[in-house]
Amino acid sequence: MDINRMTKSQFRRLPYRKNWAEEIEFDSLIILPLDFDWIGYLRFWFKHFISKIFKMNKPEIWEVGHMHDSGYRCMDFVLVREGKPICLLSGCSDVIHINGIGGLGKDWLEKYGTVPKKIEPQDWSIDCLATSGLLRILSRGKMSCGPAISSFELFSDVTEKEG
């Protein structure tokens, strides 16, 4: 199915990748915010109110479904290859680190041996799908990602030019 014609509910019905650390090659990624859990949120505020009255431990925001302990909503990600959805990732990430944490790239310590003084620019783009209104992240090369955990790392696998 063409991603530009898919609805949010069609994206949500995609299967999750089988292995959370599996390496999958893709050429774009769609950000799929998880639905807000209103019932869980009301339950959280009720517990919070009761905890003040009876001087009990306050509840944690992550107890609300689809919320990260940072207080931000979690996201799923749809991997796309040649305009076709491959699978869903994550469900527990509240942030995307473009080109890895700190923007240093994949395996930067092995590549540079230390924090690099200069990092080659990457070509990143974001567009908005017509039907769903979801955001899609693209790079000029193939893309890869780290494990889908709390902080989601996204990499462009563009081969660096030899200088």
Offer a few descriptive terms.
7-stranded mixed β-sheet; 163 residues; 16% helix; single chain; globular; alpha+beta
Structure in words:
With 163 residues, the chain is of the alpha+beta class. It has one domain. The chain contains three helices and seven strands. Strands 1, 2, 3, 4, 5, 6 and 7 form a seven-stranded mixed sheet that branches. Strand 2 and strand 3 form a beta hairpin. The chain is globular.
Task: Categorize the overall geometry.
Answer: globular
Distance between the termini: 41 Å
Proportion of helical residues: 10-25%
Average pLDDT figure: 81
SSE layout:
Elements: H1 8-12, E1 26-33, H2 38-53, E2 75-81, E3 84-93, E4 95-98, H3 108-112, E5 124-128, E6 135-145, E7 151-156
Parallel strand pairs: 4-7
Antiparallel strand pairs: 1-2, 1-6, 2-3, 5-6, 6-7
Summarize this, please?
This protein is of the alpha+beta class. It has three helices and seven strands; from the N terminus they run H-E-H-E-E-E-H-E-E-E. 16% of the residues lie in helices and 31% in strands.
